[in-house]
Every structure is written in structure tokens, then in C-alpha cells.
Automatic annotation (TrEMBL):
Record's protein name: chitinase
Entry superkingdom: Bacteria
Origin organism lineage: Bacteria, Bacillati, Actinomycetota, Actinomycetes, Kitasatosporales
Pfam families, per database record: Glyco_hydro_18
Record's keyword terms, sorted: Glycosidase, Hydrolase, Signal
Keyword tRNA-binding (UniProt): no
Assigned EC number: 3.2.1.14
Family per similarity comment: Belongs to the glycosyl hydrolase 18 family.
Signal peptide annotation: 1-34
Organism: Streptomyces atriruber
InterPro entries named in the record: Chitinase_II/V-like_cat, GH, Glyco_hydro18_cat, Glyco_hydro_18_chit_AS, Glycosyl_Hydrlase18_Chitinase
Length: 335
């Protein structure tokens, strides 16, 4: 996810073969139970959308314009400072047509009053935020908490696409949770390569903080082919790609309530991997109820699967909000 049109298009050539053995034994790990911490104002089945704090050709929105179907709104993005690990936020008032900080803060409160969670997203394709030692972990936790206090954010989204250190990012997030309390909403948006195995740094981070983790909305796009939990290779843009890769997370230690499907809102929002809303809905049904599957069908169902995410609410608006109208209604209709 980036400030031009989309997040990085990864070639990832050869990565699938290299990770084949890493999937061995996932079925024995089991889907662990997770505490309900970190789910303030988040319904059992939720829709997440990224809101763009910049104009990249998608429809410009004020936060108040974000479609009502979105339960978690991730403000994109926080900015790095000169201090390692530290982040800040700079509203692009000029790019958003004169949108003021006071209006932005008021809109956050209004969304929260309507039952939505508004969080600050850290990263994106070009987000140069590095948490690699104790000092930067402390700086990250302190600065994110400061933004939560200043703007009223409910939590944070980790969308770091240039590497994560599980030891210190976990430390930072646990520290942040201690400051923010049990109401913290914590989401993640790893790339597909980051969640192929429980040994990857992103997956290790998610497991280390699963007691405070709300949802991992992996980006099932700009990916290339990847392995499913059955060891078979699946191509992006298909229902099997969504279900086969979600299965790795579901059987790798995350609770179903901590797994969501992240997709582009339109073909303009990503370099590859766009799927029509009905494909997302079929994948959710396959995972939750065992219906609508493609060639891959999980050995069991996961009725508590959290839902879906899209990049972005702006691209969704540009396409007439077709994605949120279809997927939003479907997610909210899951049992």
C-alpha cells in the first residue's frame, strides 16, 4: 500500500519452493484460542478499510465520508521521524481540500460514536519505520500512544513491508498495550510471503502478541503464486488463493477471529490480485461454512473468521462503493 496507486508488486520468484518444507507440521499446531482483548468496538465479523491521507487519483475523502460498512478505519499513514522507531502524523490538509486537524479529530469522534474504530496505520510500501532494538521499541510505543492521546485513535495497524523484527516489535506492541489498556485495537497487514510459515518474523510477531491482537488482514494481492496449507501452489486472483493461504494462519496458531482477507477495492488499487467481491464472499463462506469453495476445501470450518479488509476506502468510493456494499453486507451477515 503506498501513496502513488498501490503497494509493492513483488516478483517473489522462487520463494514458493523455498518455503515448501516450512509448512510441514502446521496441522499439528492447531488454531489457538485468543483472549478477547484488543476488540473494543469491533464486532464479531468486521470490515477493515484503509483511508488515504493523500490524493493519489482515488476519490478524496474526509474521514466523515468513509462508507458506513467499515468497522475499522486505518488512517494511512503515520510518518517516521529522525528518531529510530518514532512515528508522527501529519494531516495532508492541502491534498485533502483544506481538511483541518480540528475537523479530522471531530470526525474520528463521530465515527467512534457510530461504533467504529479508527486506528493509525504504520508503514505502507515506503514507510521507513525501523524497530530493531529496545530503544526504538520504546520510541515506537511512546510515539504511537502519544498519537492515540492527541487524535483519539483506538489503536495501531502494522503494515511494515520492508522487514519486521519480531523480538522488538512484539516488545513495542506489548508496551503500547500496557499504556493504552485493554481497549487497544491492534491489526496487521503482512504480505503473503510474510505469512507462509510460523518461522517468519511477521508470523512470529503475530503469535507473540496474540493475546492483544485484533486481526491480521494479510494482503492477498501484488503477490504472485504462493503455497496453500495443503502444500499446493495457488495463483493470486482466485478463491483457492484466498482460502488456501488463510488456512496457513488458521492452522498456524491464530484464532479464526484474528484472521481476515485483505484485497484491493478495485483493479485500479493494486498491480495484481484483484478479485470481484463475490469471490471474497465465496472465500469467506468456504472458510466459515464450507460452502462456495474452489478446488481447495479446508478440512474444517472456521465460523468465527473475522472478515475482510480492503485497500482502500478511497478506491472503493471511486468504484461506486461496490466492494463495501457487497463484501460489507456479506461479512456482517455471517453467523
Amino acid at each position: 500500500m503506498d501513496r502513488t496507486r498501490r503497494r509493492r508488486t513483488g516478483a517473489l520468484t522462487g520463494a514458493v519452493a523455498a518455503l515448501t518444507l516450512a509448512l510441514t507440521g502446521l496441522s499439528t499446531v492447531g488454531a489457538a484460542s485468543a483472549a478477547d482483548a484488543g476488540t473494543r468496538a469491533v464486532p464479531k465479523h468486521a470490515v477493515t478499510g484503509y483511508w488515504q491521507n493523500f490524493n493519489n487519483g482515488a476519490q478524496v475523502q474526509k474521514l466523515a465520508d468513509v462508507q458506513d460498512e467499515y468497522d475499522i478505519i486505518a488512517v494511512s499513514f503515520a510518518d517516521a521521524t529522525g528518531t529510530p522507531g518514532e512515528v508522527t502524523f501529519n494531516l495532508d490538509s492541502a491534498g485533502l481540500g483544506g481538511y483541518t486537524v480540528d475537523q479530522f479529530k471531530a470526525d474520528i469522534k463521530a465515527k467512534q460514536a457510530a461504533g467504529k474504530s479508527v486506528i493509525i496505520s504504520v508503514g505502507g510500501e515506503k514507510g521507513a519505520v525501523s524497530v530493531n532494538d529496545a530503544a526504538s521499541a520504546n520510541a515506537f510505543a511512546d510515539s504511537v500512544h502519544k498519537l492515540m492521546q492527541e487524535y483519539g485513535f483506538d489503536g495501531v495497524d502494522i503494515d511494515l513491508e520492508n522487514g519486521v523484527n519480531s523480538t522488538y516489535m512484539s516488545q513495542a506492541l506489548k508496551s503500547l498495550s500496557g499504556k493504552a489498556g485493554s481497549g487497544l485495537v491492534l491489526t496487521m497487514a503482512p504480505q503473503t510471503i510474510d505469512m507462509q510459515s510460523t518461522s517468519t518474523e511477521y508470523f512470529k510477531t503475530a503469535l507473540a502478541v496474540k493475546d492483544i491482537l485484533t486481526v491480521v488482514n494479510m494482503q492477498y494481492y501484488n503477490s504472485g503464486s504462493m503455497l496453500g496449507c495443503d502444500g499446493k501452489v495457488y495463483s493470486q486472483g482466485s478463491v483457492d488463493f484466498l482460502t488456501g493461504l488463510a488456512c496457513i494462519q488458521l492452522e498456524g496458531g491464530l484464532a479464526p477471529s484474528q484472521v481476515g482477507i485483505g484485497v484491493p477495492a478495485s483493479s485500479s488499487a493494486a498491480g495484481g490480485g484483484y478479485v470481484a467481491p463475490d469471490v471474497v464472499n465465496n472465500a469467506l463462506d468456504c472458510l466459515a461454512k464450507g460452502t462456495g469453495c474452489g478446488s481447495f476445501k479446508p478440512s474444517k470450518t472456521y465460523p468465527d473468521i473475522r472478515g475482510a479488509m480492503t485497500w482502500s476506502t478511497n478506491w472503493d468510493a471511486s468504484a461506486g462503493s461496490a466492494w463495501s456494499k457487497s463484501v460489507g453486507a456479506h461479512v456482517h451477515g455471517l453467523p
